[in-house]
Amino acid sequence: MTHAVIAATGLFTPEQSISNAELVEAYNAYADRFNADHAAEIAAGEVEALTPSSVEFIEKASGIKSRFVVDKTGVLDPARMVPHIPERSNDELSVLAEMAVRAAQQAIAAWGKPVSEIGAVLCAASNMQRPYPAMAIEVQQALGIDGFAFDMNVACSSATFGIKTAADFIASGSVKAVLMVNPEICSAHLNFKDRDSHFIFGDVATAVIVESSDQAGPGGWDILGTRLKTVMSNNIRNNFGFLNKAALPAGEAEPVAANGLTDKMFVQQGRKVFKDVVPMVSDMILDHAADLGIDPATLKRMWLHQANINMNQFIGRKVLGREPTPEENVIILDEYANTSSAGSIIAFHLRQQDMTSGDTGLICSFGAGYSAGTVFVRKRA
Hints:
34% helix, alpha+beta, nine-stranded mixed β-sheet, two-stranded antiparallel ribbon, globular
């Protein structure tokens, strides 16, 4: 049976970046304004005062130092706290598709082959800007690719689910090459008024080309095995969607708590997520490695989902059976923050050039659902 190869990757990074210090200044200005506006309710015990954020709190909780965003001004405006992304007409390339195309063009250039050899496009991401037409079809048209395209969403695990889907298409003979893109404007779904999560996400787009081994050139990565897992949990949730508006009585606005929190944006119970997800993912990696005959201690590199530093370090220790080196357990969330589906692909794209033929590594993602995906790869000659 034909096996699949990761032939090339691409990365699009927005030009604007927000440091922790800038984010804290904006949040604390909002919190001061909120506490002043609700002073009477706070004094009466009816409303809880907002606690200031700090650079130290953010770095200890997450390891994040900055994040790239498509719009800095709107996020840092204490009276707005939402990115300003102008609406485009239906005749224009949508903003997510534009980001995906930029990442894809880089991957295609690195691949060095014509797009006519690509038979499918997958857009695997968390934060789609519309239900339909599929973002993947828009990207397909913009790049001049024939074949078929569709969107898929498994939250932060979307990219590994997308790689497995692409590998399965190739194994079945459906296509010879697949383009998978992961455009994420996470800042549009992040509640910057929530101290516990206002620092988590950034914006980015990644792309991966997966092709059949019988037509792959030198280099790239053999996909040794892929595995997926889902377990239902409400501990990470985003209820944004058209049904939310449809369910409201006529003329009634969406209910929002006094402190600005709403489950129509990203919400999570962080401690429960850590307790549930870390052992689930660690065991999944070890079980998959055993089934493939891979000694996890021999992994040259792990490109894990960039959730937070504590989760990544714990999983790294559990998998390798010791403290990983920075080269073994790649961390890029200090610069990019959590970029949902794109995180593990950013790490893979940026930290693989020093690896040599025969080196084995792991691409792994995990997130809401719960969902998790593992992709073991080996460097080709």
